[in-house]
Automatic annotation (TrEMBL):
Protein family according to the UniProt entry: Belongs to the peroxiredoxin-like PRXL2 family. Prostamide/prostaglandin F synthase subfamily.
Catalytic activity reported: prostaglandin H2 + [thioredoxin]-dithiol = prostaglandin F2alpha + [thioredoxin]-disulfide; prostamide F2alpha + [thioredoxin]-disulfide = prostamide H2 + [thioredoxin]-dithiol
EC number(s) stated in the UniProt entry for this protein: 1.11.1.20
Function in brief: Catalyzes the reduction of prostaglandin-ethanolamide H(2) (prostamide H(2)) to prostamide F(2alpha) with NADPH as proton donor. Also able to reduce prostaglandin H(2) to prostaglandin F(2alpha).
PANTHER family found in the cross-reference section: PROSTAMIDE_PROSTAGLANDIN F SYNTHASE, PTHR28630
The keyword Cytoplasm is annotated on this UniProt entry: yes
Name of this protein: Prostamide/prostaglandin F synthase
Record's keyword annotation contains Oxidoreductase: yes
Length: 205
């Protein structure tokens, strides 16, 4: 699925913590942007993705590329902010239709639990637990997310849709879309092999 950027440009998001409301189009009006659409602020796997992508935040900033995280709700943002999981701007959507328009699917109770036993989820859970990220079940825990990489002016470079809660767009691929792959650092935490970590599925999605 490829999103038509005009279908979401007027959708509104609210800044965290200021509460200021803006349209999505303002994100790519004057510069390139990476937008991560998180599942839940209390989701350990979302916190993991936030920590991983924050490792390339200095590169993005150096090249005048905005890094923005968006959630489905304002609930449970305090801990996310206080623990500084994400080195970028934070917002939440005014209406869940933004996620629907972007094709981000919703699980049901059975499918979300099943997805936690997928290989990618088990590896991500193990890594998140090893980093002490924690998690809870507050908020909308059956929603999935994804990412949008957009050039200044509105050209979509990549529309990424999560297949499951542990499915994250790799840093290397993000940088490649902005022709910055040469600045990719293979030694960062985000690139540690998840398979080399002990898997443990006892975590909250």
């Amino acid at each position: 699925m490829s999103v038509e950027i005009n279908s979401i440009k007027s959708h509104k998001v609210r800044s965290i913590p200021s509460g200021e409301v803006t349209e999505l189009a303002s994100f790519w009006q004057d510069q390139d942007v990476v937008i991560i659409f998180f599942r839940r602020w209390g989701c350990m796997l979302c916190r993991l993705w936030a920590k991983e992508i924050s490792e390339i935040a200095p590169i993005l900033k150096k090249h005048n590329i905005r890094l923005i995280g968006v959630g489905v709700e304002s609930a449970n943002t305090k801990e996310f902010l206080e623990n500084k999981y994400f080195d970028g701007e934070l917002y939440h959507v005014e209406d869940i239709s933004t996620y629907q328009t972007l094709g981000f699917k919703r699980f049901n109770v059975i499918s979300i639990i099943t997805s936690l036993f997928w290989k990618q989820s088990r590896e991500a859970i193990s890594k998140g637990k090893g980093m002490g990220l924690g998690g809870d079940l507050k908020g909308d825990w059956v929603q999935t997310g994804g990412a949008l990489l957009v050039e200044k002016g509105g050209k979509v470079l990549r529309h990424f849709i999560q297949t499951g809660p542990g499915d994250h767009l790799p840093n290397q691929e993000i940088l490649k879309h902005f022709n910055l792959e040469k600045e990719y650092n293979e030694e960062t935490m985000a690139n540690r092999d998840r398979e080399n970590l002990t898997c443990n599925t006892e975590a909250k999605p």
